[in-house]
Amino acid sequence: MPKVLVDLLSYTGTKGGMETYTRELYRSLGSLEGDWEYVGYVSREGARLDLSWFPGRVLESGISGENRFAWAWGELTQVSRAAKREDVDIVHAPATLGPYRTSVPTVLTMHDMLYWSHPELMSTPLYTAPVKWMEKKAAANAAMIITISPTSKREISKYLHADAARIEVIPLAGTAPHGVDRSLAGSKGPLILAMGNRRPHKNWGALIRALSLLAPERRPRVAITGGRGDDPLAPLVSSLGLEKWVELRGWVDDAEVTRLYSVATALAIPSFAEGFSLPTLESMGAGLPALLSDIEVHRYVGGAAARYFNPTDDGQLAALLEQVVTNPKLLEDMSVAGRARAAEFTWERTARETRSVFERALS
Questions:
Q1: Which residue has the higher pLDDT, 21 or 228?
Q2: How far is CA 255 from CA 49, 175, 258, 297, in A?
Q3: DSSP E strand boundaries for 50-111
Q4: Distance, CA of 27 to chain centre
Q5: 105 contacts 3 by C-beta, under 8 angstroms
Q6: pLDDT over 80 (residue 15)
Q7: How far is the C-alpha of 324 from the C-alpha of 130, rounded, in Å?
Q8: Is the pTM of this model over 0.90?
Q9: Are 40 and 73 in contact (CB under 8 A)?
Q10: How far apart are the C-alpha atoms of 116 and 192, rounded to whole Å?
């Protein structure tokens, strides 16, 4: 029976897409046939969360995943010590960073190379050099590297000089919120939904500026969720006089996500760069059309079901916004195509392909 130590030091309930990946991956791994044992090495904050999705024993580290210094020390040194104490056969680090050195094979999931490819867009420049160093050391230690898109694989090879033969692309999947009722779409008027943190590479300003280019009578409302504290988008909204049309939201609970997915006209993501795009799959799976910046990762995820715009061309995005809120037939076609596209990505597939990588690392 292979025994896997899962590095959950980054799992604190605040990390968004990487935590969704970890949670859904291990929920699915636990349902696969075969005799595997999983031990979760969890942060102090993570130990207080609902971990019923994890298919094995949870080992509390006592290390804070929110204190950057404590967390970095834990990643570099304590994961390997826990692996030795637990006498595991393999370590999996699912959140981009992992141990500096291990005595057993390590599989590292690297979600993106944004600190390398777009350092100017990182909101924490003081951490850029340390994070890059940790990524380089973790990748060098890994027997196998999993990543989530061809773009990330190419960049891992480029920036970390990792052999492409030990990098496996395994796409994520999207789980549409339960209870979405698309018969309510537009019932509150045209609404464009945008979901994500306020890091610069998300490029939310483009969506706000594009909205300002539309005549008020043809302008949809926009709801941007995922903010924390004082929203950095508020001054732009105010300067353009769009308070009536733009709602800046914090993190929303599952019930509110379901409501927004039900009433929204479309989802918009104007990012300059992404490792993947879970919101795209989730929205398309719910029947919500997706408007995406024209970057390679979005094409990989959205395929022909989405509509694309240049993230540096506010006028192009404005024209697309006007098109989707005035063309019901287009929205219907995009909804059907989106559901079909999202169905191609499943967490079971992600789990099976991940376990195959574990087997390769063990051999």
A1: 21
A2: 19, 15, 5, 29
A3: 57-60, 90-93, 106-110
A4: 17
A5: no
A6: no
A7: 43
A8: no
A9: no
A10: 31
